[in-house]
Task: structure prediction
Amino acid sequence: MRTVKAWAATSATDPLTETTIERRDVGEHDVLIEIAYAGICHSDIHTGRSEWGPANYPVVVGHEIAGTVVEVGPGVTKHAVGDRVGVGCMVNSCGECAACLAGNEQYCPKQVGTYNATDVDGTITQGGYSTHVVVTEDFVLRIPEGLALDVAAPLLCAGITTWSPLRRWNVAEGSKVAVVGLGGLGHMAVQLAVALGAEVTVLSQSLKKQEDGLALGATDYRATSDETTFTDLRGQFDLIISTVSAPLDIAEFMSLLRPEGTMVNLGGPPEPFAVPAFSLIAGSKNLAGSLIGGIPATQEMLDFCAEKGIGSQVEVIPAEKVNEAWERVLASDVRYRFVIDAATI
Ligand SMILES: [Zn+2]
Ligand SMILES: [Zn+2]
Result:
């Protein structure tokens, strides 16, 4: 065992505090990573505050991890000491089921989350708000040269979560895509869709971030609070990606799709959607969801980002600012992702 520094939630209500945790010894197929940066995802807050069920306290969250390999087990073939690597939302799976064999480890019934999950050895996983992590090599991604570690960290969750639907619905040159909400996920969806050749419109509550949206490559930016948006853009889009967790008028959004178009939901509003049947039947439209992405797709996304010069827009903070950062995430006061500098942990 190795004792490492971390910031942990000790209850659903107390602020995160500095602590130490144990990391397992580097096993046959394990990689020890010295963490350089850990992104702050809204899921971290949900888990840390037991909003998605009771957490195992103390819990160290963080599933947008970028760093450098400092030790490898004797059986490791995919990574070497000194490699720049990342870890996302999963750290293990069964490796044998249909989902795993298809590279969709996120659907594996035995998939192990990066934090607050029971690992194969029975221990509870602890995430990236820490100086080091030990992960089995199959769940460690290569971060290509040319992609800085701070801007790469959020790609491990926000990047892959938006990349998956763009690929699944074959977004390419000439596709018309709308992105609902310009936050951590939305700002990645815009950049990735544009780089794939799509014409991208941002649909946001207000025009507050219009300049940013256009700078990220969107060609149009509309306020959903303005009713003319829904009449002007009727029947325009092949794909709508919603990144917001607020309740949405689904029928209004479905009306923006072309026949056979798809609206994919990445946000998790607490209330069920009200979906009028004919908003789907008329035009044979699809309402879908999407869950992160598999390991091969995550590597593909990182390679694509390096090739196209895409990264997350980040605000790097010292660990002692993490509680303040969580409050700012809740207030949507970040452009567009906080990243903890792990050297300050
Ligand atoms: Zn996340
Ligand atoms: Zn499996």
About this structure: The pocket of zinc ion (ligand 1) is lined by residues 41, 43, 63, 89, 157 (CB under 6 Å). Residues 159-289 form a domain with the Rossmann fold fold (CATH 3.40.50.720). The chain has a mean pLDDT of 97. Residues 295-308 form the longest helix (14 residues).
